[in-house]
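Entry type: protein chain
Record version: 2
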Amino acid sequence: MKDQKQQTAGEDPGAPVLGVLDDFVGMYLRAAYETAYRDFATRLGADTLKPGYFTILTLIVNNPGISQTQIGQASQRDKSSVAKALRWMEDNGLITRLRPNHDRRTHLSEATDAGRVLQARMEAKGRDHLAALNATIGTERREAFIATLKQIIEALPAAAPPTE
């Protein structure tokens, strides 16, 4: 751990002392996510959707008839966030939601033509973003970086103490 006097938000001598925050990986994960999202949104321009919506739309385009539960699991999003995104996409003509005859409680999602066109446009523009991220991380570190992120995702919920 650094000496507290060195724990600043940058090299600027007038920057606030971060203290223990300098050791909080989560703070840097959030800042990296927000920076990456801003870059992604800038590259997409008018095609930008809310965070996570591109992920959900891509899952639907690639998996016609996918259920809300499957979308939540694959996107690592909670049930209410997925439901909100699906309602918005349906209201905006990007997807249709169907109920299978065998299970009336389940909704299966399929992309409309407009949804497929938007997702394809976003994916094409997003490739520049992906290239910029990969260049920043470096090809020699990318695999280990993603493995570390996956390990955090998988390990931390199991390590968390129960809440009361």
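Comment: Residues 24-156 form a domain with the Arc Repressor Mutant, subunit A fold (CATH 1.10.10.10).
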